[in-house]
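Good morning,

Attaching, inline, the backbone tokens for the sequence recovery test we're adding to the shared suite. The designed sequence is right after.
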């Protein structure tokens, strides 16, 4: 039995839902984000940007923030049955427009979705890297891959680096993922 079989994920409205635990998860994330800002300001006052990015205090907070963000997702998912996309970064209409994909009018777009997955465990030797570093490395690799695909003549309409599940694109329905 999957976690999508209960009434929370059903088609009927839930009625009254106790929101306090959801707000509690968000509040914990907000406190960690405020702590991150305070720590980042202090670390940056001592070190250059590259060193600050790899500072153990920053890496530890990034891992904690990722965990709290997952807790918010889990709280919303288990309580409301929703699959919130809380980690996508967007910079507004202007930049979104530069990623529009044109294809001839009236012709079906011939695009396919490809995935490359990794199962990663925490480092087993001393390192400044955290599990949060993995998404940064995958994001960099994604940018490099897009460049290689475009150089090879392909049009990369969208791409995503995600943690936990494949990233969904605008035209995908997360119900098809179950």
């Amino acid at each position: 039995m999957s976690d999508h079989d209960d009434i929370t994920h059903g088609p009927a409205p839930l009625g009254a839902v106790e929101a306090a635990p959801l707000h509690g998860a968000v509040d914990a994330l907000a406190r960690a984000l405020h702590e991150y800002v305070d720590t980042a300001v202090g670390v940056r006052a001592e070190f250059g940007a590259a060193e600050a990015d790899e500072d153990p205090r920053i890496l530890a907070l990034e891992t904690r923030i990722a965990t709290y963000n997952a807790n918010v997702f889990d709280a919303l998912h288990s309580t409301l049955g929703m699959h919130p996309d809380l980690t996508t970064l967007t910079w507004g209409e202007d930049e979104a427009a530069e990623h529009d994909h044109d294809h001839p009018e009236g012709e079906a777009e011939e695009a396919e979705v490809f995935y490359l997955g990794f199962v990663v465990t925490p480092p087993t030797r001393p390192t400044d890297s955290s599990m949060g570093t993995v998404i940064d490395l995958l994001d960099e690799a994604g940018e490099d891959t897009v460049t290689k695909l475009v150089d090879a003549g392909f049009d990369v309409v969208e791409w995503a680096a995600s943690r936990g599940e494949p990233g969904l694109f605008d035209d995908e329905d997360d119900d098809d993922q179950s």
